[in-house]
Amino acid sequence: MRSSTINIDLLMVCLVVACFLGTTQGGDLRKNFYKKTCPLAEEIIRNATWKQTSTNSNLPAKLLRMHFHDCFVRGCDGSILLDSPNQTAEKNAIPNLSLAFFNVIDDIKQELERKCPGVVSCADILTLAARDSVSFQFQKPMWEVLTGRRDGKVSIQAEVLPNLPGPFDNFTTLMQHFTSKGLNLHDLVVLSGGHTIGVGHCNLFSNRLYNFTGKGDQDPSLNPTYAAFLKTKCLTVTDTVTTVEMDPNSSLTFDADYYSVVLQKKGLFQSDAALITNQQSKKIVGELVSGAKFTVEFAQSMKRMGAIGVLTGNDGEIRKKCNAVN
Q: Between β-strands 243-245 and 199-201, what pairing exists: parallel, antiparallel or unpaired?
């Protein structure tokens, strides 16, 4: 009787562990989720995204950032795409005001609704389009995207700042944000490499130039020559219009240059500079200078990030329009 009880208890433990692993690793996400219900879904998304990217070199950085901002708040559920009549949705939060090209996702959704109504989620469209926009440069998928996400029905502006890593974060705060989402130190350093494309607004780093500790001083951890250059671009602390490349002279090319920049103390944001304030993190930065290693590691971390808090099965819904719940 005791042996039987032990076996049953062991079975229950195994089931609980299996359920936990399934949840943390993306639940029911799988390859070719739409193979039977909408066989051309991923091809339609890729073709539409590549067409848009071919005429807009800023799209990869924008969609990658949108995907990141979606996943860190309520998980990868497309809640970043929702509009609110009283302007209280996630996209209305200050960090999201500079997001752009929601229309690209909306257009892809409309095309899919014509081919396969009520089948493909906006969360999956955003996840695939982010991957495909970056992949346009290489003309092949740069990481695997498992599908089967469903769309969330809730989007709350107030939830953004507490959950989203920010440009002013130090190493400890960054780690807290990432571990709270089931990601680790390696993921933090690797996903920061997304800053190899895109630009940053002056007001998100100009305190490092003019008033780092509130005494009119400059951040001593910032390369002085680079700081002098940045001052020619950002003339005041409050400039919210001017932008600067996050990866100098390489902001339209997805590569590993970002890590060389960080090691030269030319990381644009405090969050970039924070990566070399921790010995283990700095070691990873040095390893990722290799383009081949970065490509492999980025693919793995993006797959993990794309599984944060996903809704699958009967949870959530499949929106008819990406900017509104059904």
A: antiparallel
Report d(CA 68, CA 163) in Å as an integer.
11
The residue whose two tokens read 């970056």 is 134
Q: pTM for the complete prediction?
A: 0.90
Residue 69 annotated to the active site:
yes
Could you give the number of structural domains in the chain?
A: 2
> Which one is catalytic: 67, 69, 186, 195?
69
CA-CA distance, 206 to 238, in Å (whole number)? 8
d(CA 73, CA 88) in angstroms, rounded, equals: 14
In a domain, 22, yes or no: no
Classify residue 177 by its DSSP letter: H
Rounded to 10 deg, the angle between the 41-55 and 122-135 helix axes is 50
Q: In this structure, are 188 and 116 located in the same domain?
A: no
Q: What is the pLDDT of residues 48-87, one digit of tens each?
A: 999 999 999 999 999 999 999 999 999 999 999 999 999 9
- Which among 63, 53, 40 is positioned nearest to 306, based on CA atoms? 63
Residue 7 in any domain: the answer is no
Please state, in angstroms and as integers, the Cα–Cα distance from residue 185 to each residue in 51, 175, 199, 277, 315, following that order. Answer: 35, 7, 24, 13, 30
